[in-house]
Amino acid sequence: MSAASTAEPAFVAKTKTGRVTDFVDQRVGGSGILREFGRKVFPDHWSFMFGEVALYSFVILLLSGTFLTFFFDPSMAETHYDGSYVPLKGVEMSVAYSSSLDISFDIRGGLFMRQVHHWAALLFVASIAVHMLRVFFTGAFRKPREMNWVVGSVLLILAMAAGFTGYSLPDDLLSGNGLRIIDGVIKSIPVIGTYISFFLFGGEFPGTAVIGRLYMLHILLVPALILLMIVLHLFMVVVHKHTQYPGPGRNDNNVVGYPLGPVYAAKAGGFFFIVFGVLALMAGFFTINPIWNYGPYDPSPVSAGTQPDWYIGFVDGALRLMPGTFGDWQVEQTWLGFVFSFNVLLPALVPAGILFTVMFMYPWIERWITKDDREHHVLDRPRNAPTRTAIGMAGFVWYCVMWAAAGSDLIATHFSVSLNDVTYWLRALFFIGPIIAFIVTKRVALALQRKDREIALHGRETGRIVRLPHGEFIEVHAPLDEYKRYKLVGFESPEVLPAVPNEHGVVTRKEKRRAFLSKWFFEDRVAPASPAELEAAHGHGHGHEAVEAQESAKSLSR
Amino acid sequence: MGNHSDGSPNHSGTVATAGQNEVEKFQDPGIPPHRLRLADTDPKAAKRAERQVALLFGISVVGTLIFLVAYFAIDLGAEDSSIATIRLQNMLLGLGTAFAMLGIGTGIVHWAKALMPDHEVSEERHAIRYEEDRQAAVRIVDDIVEETGIKRRPLIRNTLLGAVALAPLPAVAIFGDLGPRPDDKLAHTLWAPQEGKLKRLARDPDGTPIKASDVTIGSAFHVIPEGLNDLHEGKLNEKAKAVVLLMRLDPASLNPSEGREDWGYNGIVAYSKICTHVGCPVALYEQQTHHLLCPCHQSTFDLTQECKVIFGPASRPLPQLPIAVDDEGYLVATSDFKEPVGPSYWERDMHERSIDS
Known about the structure:
The complex is a heterodimer of chains A (about 550) and B (about 350).
Chain A: H1 2-6, H2 16-28, H3 30-37, E1 41-42, H4 49-69, E2 78-80, E3 92-94, H5 95-105, H6 110-137, H7 146-168, H8 173-187, H9 193-201, H10 210-240, E4 254-259, H11 260-285, H12 291-294, H13 313-321, E5 325-326, E6 329-330, E7 333-335, E8 338-340, H14 342-370, H15 386-405, H16 408-414, H17 419-458, E9 460-467, E10 473-478, H18 482-489, H19 509-522, H20 531-539, H21 544-557
Helix pairs in contact in A: 4-6, 4-11, 5-6, 6-7, 6-11, 7-10, 7-14, 13-14, 13-15, 15-17, 17-18
Chain B: H1 38-41, H2 43-73, H3 83-114, E1 121-124, H4 131-148, H5 154-166, H6 169-173, E2 199-203, E3 220-225, H7 235-242, E4 244-248, E5 268-272, E6 284-286, E7 291-293, E8 300-302, E9 308-311, E10 320-321, E11 323-325, E12 331-333, H8 348-356
Antiparallel strand pairs in B: 2-3, 2-12, 3-4, 4-5, 5-10, 6-7, 7-8, 8-9, 11-12
Helix pairs in contact in B: 2-3
C-alpha cells in the first residue's frame, strides 16, 4: 500500500534483547500497559504495607505449601511409625501423622518448610487483620471502596478457613482435639447438625475421611478462592488508585506519591524479600507446632493448656466464657423432644456473627448516617473521626476479651490466679469492656483533636522558658510552618444532620433513627482551627489571657 | 497554654464558631518543597550508599551459600544424627534463607531510598465512571436485550429460568453419599453386653482388665472396654464414645440418686470421659475436691453430685456407666450407658428415651 510506504519505517530493534521484547510487544501490546502503569503514582506510608505483608505471606504460603504437598500423604489409614524420631518408634498412628513426622525428621529442609509454612499462615491472617484495622480506622472503606472492603472481609474469612483446614492436617493430638471441638459445635446445629457432622467425617467422628477432605479444601478450593479474591482486590485497587493520608498538597482529586517505576516497585519488591527473610528467621529459630511432642490423635488423652492457632482463639474463647448452667437451670434445652444446645450454639455463632455482620455492613451504615455520597480518597486521621474510632476500638476490645478467654487457663497458671476468677472477670469484661473502650477512645480522640487545635493556633512547645521583665515565666511557643499547620487543620469535620422530611413532607421513623445516630456520631466534635482563629491568636501577640477571654466569649455566644 | 478547647459546658467541647461551610478554611499550601538528601548533593555519600547496597547484595550471596552448605553437609541419615542435628540444620537453613532474602530486600530498599529520585509527584485522579460511558452502556444493553427478544417472548424466559433453577439440584444430590445416615449410631457404645457377656473395664491404652481390688481410694484409671484394641475397623470411632474415667471415693461421699445406688461398687464409679460440651476428653481429676475438669473449655463436674456441672460451658452431667464385679473380681459394665455420651445433638433426647424404654 502506498500509505504504508509514506509512513515512518517500521521499528527494528538493534539488540537481541530488543528484538525479543519487540516480538512479544507486537503480540501482547506491552507498550500500552507499561505506558499506563509504568509511572503510576502510589502514596507512601508505613501503614500501607500491612496489605503487602499479607500478599507476600500468601506467595510464601504457596511456595512452601507446594513443597509440603510433595511429601505429605493425607491418609487416615493406620500405620506404625518407622521414622527416625525415636520416642514414637513403633507407635500406631495415621499415615498423615507419620508423613508429617517424616517431613519434620527425615526430609532435609522439611522441618524448615513446615515451620515457614505455619509461621507464614499465622502472619497471613495477622497481616490481613491489621490491614483491615488500618483501613477501618482511617476510613479507607468509604466510597468508592465499599466493595473492596467486602472483598477484603471475605479474604479474612477465607484466610481463617485456610488456616484451620491446614491446622488439622497433621492429625496429631492437638489438631485432632480441634476437630473434636468443631464436631461438637456442628452437632449443636438444630435439625441438620448430626447429618452435617456425619457428612463431614464420612460417618462417626473421627472416621477415616476427614483429613483427605480437609486436604482437598486446603490445597485446592480455599487457595483458589483466595487467589480469585486477591485478583479482585488488586483490580479494584488499580481502578480506585490508592488512598492517601491528609497533608499539604493532597486532596480528593489527586494522588501524591512516588511513581511505580522505579521507586515504588523497588520498595515494594524489596519488601517481599524482607518479609520472606523475617519468616525464614522465625522458622529457623522459633519452633511452631511441634507435632512430635503431641503424639498421634487418640480420643482419650488431651494435653492441658491446649490452644488453637491465634485466629480461631476468639471463637474458642467465646465457647469458654458461656456458662452452661445457671444454678440448676441448664442452658441446653429440650423442646418438643429435640435438643437445643444454646450453651454451644450461642457462643459459637452470635459473637462471630455480630462481628462479621457489622464488619461487612459498616461502610453502608456510616454512609446512611452521614448521607455522604462523595468519593473519599484522602484518609481520616483516626482522631478526626472520634465516634468511628471509638466503635472500632469497642469491637477490637470485644474481640480481644474473647481471644484472651481462649487462654484463660494459661492466664490462671502464669499469674497464679484462680481459673474461675479469670473466667468471671472475662465474662464481665465481655459486656463492659467494649463500653469502656468506646468511651475512653472517644475522649482520647477528642482530646487529641483539641491538642491539634492548640498546636495549630499557638505553635509547638519549644521547651524554652523565658522570664519576662515583670517576673512571669512563660514557655516560648514556636509557630508552625504552613505545611505542618495544614496537616492539623485540613480535615473535614461533619456535623449532625437533623432529620429531614421526605418528598411527602413526612419525617419517617427510619429518618428519625438516622438523625438520632447522626447526633450520636457527631454531637461531640472539635472543629478544625480556622484562619480567623489563628488571626485572633496572633493578633493579640503574647497576651494569652486576652486570647482566652475572646475565645470563651466566642464559644459562649454560640 | 490557651484554653481553646474546653468551650462552654453546653457545647461539649465545641469551639467552632460556625458550621464548616461558613467558616473560611485554611488554604492548601501545596506539596512541601523538596529537600535534597546527602546522596543528592555529595558524590561521596552517593558512592558510599552504592557500596552499602552492593555489600547487602553480597550478604545475600553468603546467605545462599550458608543454606547450600547446611543442606548438603548435614546428613540426617547419618548414624550419629539426632534431634540436635535436625535443630542445627533447621537453624542454619533459616539463617541462610534469612540472610539471602534480607540481603536482597534491604539492599533494594536502601537503593530506592538513598539513590533513586525521591521527588513526590502528584497525579490527577480520573472519574471511575463517566456519564457518557454510562449512557453508551445502557444503549448497548438495551440493544442486546432487544435483539434477544426476551421481553417479547416470555415463554422462552420463563422456561429458561425454570430450567436454570432446577439444574443445580443434581450437584446437591450428588453429595448425598458424603456420609452415612446417622440413625442411632451415636446412642450406642462398645459397653453394651455382647451375647450376654458383660464387658470388662480395661486399662487405656494397653487393654488389660482392671480388678476391683486394684482400685484404691483416691486413685483414678483411664478405661476402655475390653476388646477395643482387637478391633480392626473403626477403633478410634468406638474409642471416641467409649472412654471412661474410673475413680474410687469414700462411699459416704457419693450421693447416688434413686435408681443409681447399684451403679457403683464400693465407692468405685465410672463416668464417660467425653465432655458433654463439645466432646474433649475430661482428662483432669482433682482428687482432693472430687472434681473432673475438661482442659479444653474448663467445664467442671462434681463427682459427689453424680458429675453435675458446677462450672464452665457444659450443660449436662457426664453420663455414668453402671458397673459391678464379676466372679473373678474384675470390674464389668452391667449395661451400656443409659444415655448417649458426648456432645449434645438434635436427636439426642429421642435416643435417650429409646434407650430407657
